[in-house]
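Per-record layout

source: Pararge aegeria aegeria
name: Jg9822 protein
length: 472
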Amino acid sequence: MALDAFGRLVFLYLACAKLVSAQYTIPDVTIQALKPKGIRVSIPDSRGVSLFVFQGNLNKEIGSNDVGVIAGEVTNPMDGLWMYEDLDLQLKVGDVIYYYVFVSNDGKGYVKDRLTFTVRVLEDPISTGPNDCAPTQTRVRNGQACAGKIIFEEKFDYLREDVWQIEQYIPDEPDYPFVSYQRPFNVPTVSVQGGYLRIEPKLQQNIPGFSNSSIEMGSLDLFSGCTATSTKCRTEAWGASILPPIVSGKLTSKAFAFTYGVVEIRAKLPQGDWLYPDILLESFLKKYGSLNYASGVLRVAGARGNGQLSVGTADFGNKLLFGGVLMDAKCRDILLRNKTSSRPWGDDYHIYAVRWTPDEITLLVDGEEWTRITPSSNSLKDLFSTSCDIPRSVLATGSKLAPFDDHFVLSLGVAAGGITEFPDGVTSAGKPKPWQNTSRKASLRFWQDIASWIETWRQPALLVDYVTVRAL
């Protein structure tokens, strides 16, 4: 392509880019000055990227619509990178490259401009190539991690059961959600459609083959295909204790577990009264204990599905994003952080991310950092109230980030109700929550109020576009 024609193309891209809202965030650009001469520019690959354009000037500023003397257009990634090279460019220490980049993602244009790079050292092009494995703090179970490289990627072209375990069991402590995780034959709760993972809750009474007389009587047997301990594979309705009225889905990464890294999940959250997504990192081997949150749970993102959920003026509904570390059920409200949006988080796809290092945990949404959890010089516990019942095993061993210093797995699911996610005293669209968290009849009261909440389940599914994990 001729340079002037290339410039006109970039100008049109830039003009279009200003018309779209930012759903994709251009990652940090890596520039290497090579010896004896040359330049290498790259960004990590991610789902939806179809074009990477670099425009730069040497020791001279560049306008956001200008064509630079260093110009490249890349239409295909290589080894997980969108990379442009010019091995004829002569650079020296002290040179400054003024540049901007354009990326096309899912048919939309995105620009990152007014950037600079100062040459500090000339690097060997062989030792710094895309196949080089630089050391990293990230650890992978039964695998190797290289700095900045993707260690896990799922684009959901189909449901890979060699990668994901589709859970089947009845969850209990500490949340006791009003669901069972199943994979019914004719009514899938977990599916892949058009390149998206779909996890959608259903009513147990509508599942084909459910032969019991009702939710309030009978039994639920999940032993065939159960993925948990035997105590979570079967239950019977008795008195105030009914069968879980909701059937939902949950996926857990089967073989992949890691310690430290950057996780990105592009997803649309479910909406509907008393629903909430589970987008989690969970301990793989439960190093610090198996009960409650003893070994830690990291909630990457969550939003309650109710459109209007409040206590007084406090909003707990679908405009409130929450996430963070969980080490104790009693003080979860102290541990979790939140961020408010002007629109429901389930209205659009967003990129929910966590950067997990040995020193801190940072949560981001659409590239914007919204909370950072940094322990004191002693331990993570010192950040939180002494009312948290942190297990002694966490305090006695491990790093200052314990229990978040062990291998964790990815977990994706949808739950409903329960005794921790929805505080007592909240009202939904002006109506009191139908159950009390301390009551034996909590699930029954929820079920008896079905006429109020089922009509709000117009978008009850969690939709996931992609999941990536990158080494530090």
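summary: The CA atoms of residues 310 and 417 lie 16 Å apart. Residues 153-470 form a domain with the Jelly Rolls fold (CATH 2.60.120.200).
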